[in-house]
Amino acid sequence: MKYLKYLLWTLLASVLILQGYFFIQILLWRWVNPETTAFQRAELQRLCSTSKICALKKDWIPLKEISPTLRRAVMISEDSDFYRHHGFELKAMKEAWQRNQQKGKHLRGGSTITQQLAKNLFLSGEKNYIRKGQEFIITGMLELLLSKDRIFEIYLNHVEWGEGIFGIAAASRHYYALSPKQLGIQESAALAAALPAPKCFDQQRYCAKARINFPNRIEFILEWLARQNQRNAAPVELDERILIEEESEN
User: Fold this and answer.
1) pLDDT-derived band of residue 244, with 50, 70 and 90 as boundaries?
2) Beta bridge partners of 166
3) Distance in angstroms (rounded) separating the CA atoms of residues 216 and 197
4) Distance CA 108, CA 96 (A)
5) What is the pLDDT of residue 74?
6) How far apart are the first and last CA of the chain?
7) What's the number of CA atoms in the CB half-sphere (13 Å) around residue 250?
8) What is the helix (H) or strand (E) element at residue 74, kind and residue range?
9) How many CB atoms lie within 10 A of CB 31?
10) What is the C-alpha separation between 128 and 131, in angstroms, rounded?
11) Which residues contact 227 (CB under 8 A, 6 or more apart)?
């Protein structure tokens, strides 16, 4: 019994130390830009073992130097209520869970931008309840310690946009030879549409599992960008067309 208590206390201490590490890391990111993420490290390892190219394309760029159109397009694609929720969209999560249960497998996570960032920064690509629980805790820390603009800035600089391509600076150069500030409405819509399946958007050979219609998604985003412009960029409510079912690549 004594050893069992010791084991439980050791496990609890380990969990608390891990949460403290996450907390301190996120707190530091108020002032320091994160250099890399867990997902990027895993992707680099994969590239080094399967490809001749053993490097990632990424550069940091401040949020103010990113096209406002691109920022709105990404929110339409990934999380239209980003500036209005506290890291979680319970309705979207419930709908995604019900849809996945009906299909018998994971199709769409219903994750917010903050949840996606939490997963990419620290966690593996495994899908289980322990990892999801840790994702919720990190999401809460991000929302507590960082401003919405800072969360969005980190997300846009670290999200995957193709094979070995991370962040909007690398993506805008790779696809359009433009800076993020120069992105127009067409380029912004296309890059935002790529986010659910970035490798497929970049290279056809990755499209076997990604069930997504990029032209339709681009058209949808363009439609909502036009509506936002007419309403002075008012928040939008998205319909089911944006809830494209696909195999998660991350």
Assistant:
1) very low
2) 160
3) 14
4) 6
5) 96
6) 42
7) 25
8) helix 68-78
9) 7
10) 6
11) 236
* pLDDT at 250 > cutoff 80: no
Comparing CA positions, the residue from 192, 165, 161, 151 lying closest to residue 68 is 192
Residue type for position 233: A
57 φ, ψ (degrees, to nearest 5): -100, 115
Decide if 77 contacts 246 (C-beta within 8 A).
Answer: no
> Binning pLDDT at 50, 70 and 90, where does residue 107 land?
very low
Which H, E and C letters describe 96-161, residue by residue? HHHHHHHHCCCCCCCCCHHHHHHHHHHCCCCCCHHHHHHHHHHHHHHHHHCCHHHHHHHHHHHCEE
**Which residues, 6+ apart, have CB-to-CB distance to 151 below 8 Å?**
113, 114, 117, 142, 143
| Phi/psi of residue 153, nearest 5 degrees | -60, -45
Quick one: pLDDT band at residue 121, thresholds 50, 70, 90?
very high
Q: What sign for the dihedral angle of Cα 189, 193, 198, 204?
A: negative
Contact between 158 and 167 (Cβ < 8 Å):
yes
Q: What dihedral angle (degrees, nearest 10) is formed by the CA atoms of 77, 79, 81, 86?
A: -170
Which amino acid is residue 228, in one-letter code?
A: Q
Query: What is the C-alpha to C-alpha distance for residues 222 and 171, in angstroms, rounded to an integer?
Result: 19
Distance of CA 104 to the CA centre of its chain: 24
Q: How many CA atoms lie within 13 A of 216 on its CB side?
A: 8
What is the per-residue pLDDT across 145-175, written as a single tens digit (0 to 9) for each?
A: 999 999 999 999 999 999 999 999 999 999 9
Output the six-digit token pair for 117.
């960032």
Q: Which of 197, 187, 126 is nearest to 161 (CA)?
A: 197
pTM: 0.85
